[in-house]
Design brief:
Blueprint lengths: L4 E3 L10 E3 H17 L3 E2 H12 L7 H14 L3 E3 L7 E4 L2 H6 L1
Antiparallel strand pairs: 1-2, 3-5, 4-5
């Protein structure tokens, strides 16, 4: 379904955004694969890598979608901000972290 949409979540309970699922999936897969390759990564670096890799094939503003999907993945407890990092870094939530939450 080319026009199927998904309503994103926000980690602070704010209103999410309604975006095309195909775009969401591309950015989600990029974020999850990138975090699988890095134990932790600065958000700015993640955004820069996404723009470099996806700008020629993605039919939207890569940076805007990275922000929206990153927040959604945080709200779904799949990724998390690393505490006490500035600029903020993110990482995958591991099963051990899920058990202890």
């Amino acid at each position: 379904m080319e026009n199927e949409k998904i309503m994103t979540l926000h980690p602070q309970g704010k209103k999410g955004v309604n975006i095309l699922k195909r775009r969401y999936d591309v950015i989600r897969d990029f974020i999850m694969e990138t975090l699988s390759d890095h134990s932790e990564i600065a958000y700015q670096e993640l955004d820069k890598l996404a723009v470099q890799k996806l700008k020629d094939s993605f039919d939207g503003k890569v940076g805007w979608y990275v922000v929206s999907v990153k927040l959604d993945l945080e709200a779904r407890n799949l990724i998390e901000r690393v505490p006490n990092t500035s600029p903020h870094e993110i990482r995958l939530v591991t099963n051990a972290q899920l058990v202890n939450s």
